[in-house]
Amino acid sequence: MNKTTCKIWLLALLLIGAPLSAEQFEGDVLAERVQAIVQVSENVQGSFTQKKFIEVLPHPLRSSGEFAFSRDGGLLWKTLEPIASELHFNHLGISQQVDGETLWAIDPNQPITVALTQVLTGILSSNWEVLQEYFVLAGSIEEGRWSVQLTPKELSWSTVIDRLQVKGGGVVESIVMFEPNQERTEINLDVTYADSH
Q1: Which end of the chain is less packed: N or C, by CB atoms within 10 Å?
Q2: What pLDDT score does 8 carry?
Q3: 80-103: string of b/e by CB count within 10 Å (b at 16+)?
Q4: Over the Cα atoms of the chain, what is R_g?
């Protein structure tokens, strides 16, 4: 076997053994490809762990709890540790409750209330059509696993969110919110129930 033949065989072996790179997509094409893997859900329930990274703190702030979303009832984000509280996102607006008492509430007619509710429920229910109203989508898919970066279309959003990174497989598994001040929030989801229409 001459040197040229050896090189060809070596190259062939390297190509066969090399892992396939993730396919890159954007916009409607990405939304359609991800939607083919994870279907829009009418009801989603599960638990979460959350880490908030703040620049001046040496360690992240940690919390955990449960969440439940239904198309008719909205989203309940229930923190159990370290301090019990509930965030409600529904037709009445957004509110926080502790021990059954409402600490604050935002009117449902406020544009930010509508937008924030649609974005959060859109992510949890995998409704990419709704998310495209607020964000530019770009990401990758590899062997049934997907990663989507959501960049705000409006300047009003970009003052609060630099970008979102959402990852998953058959369901949404993690959300990372990057803020303009270099801080970020990481949320890992364990979906225990999801039904599709």
Answers
A1: N
A2: 36
A3: eeeeeebbbbbeebbbbbeeeeee
A4: 21
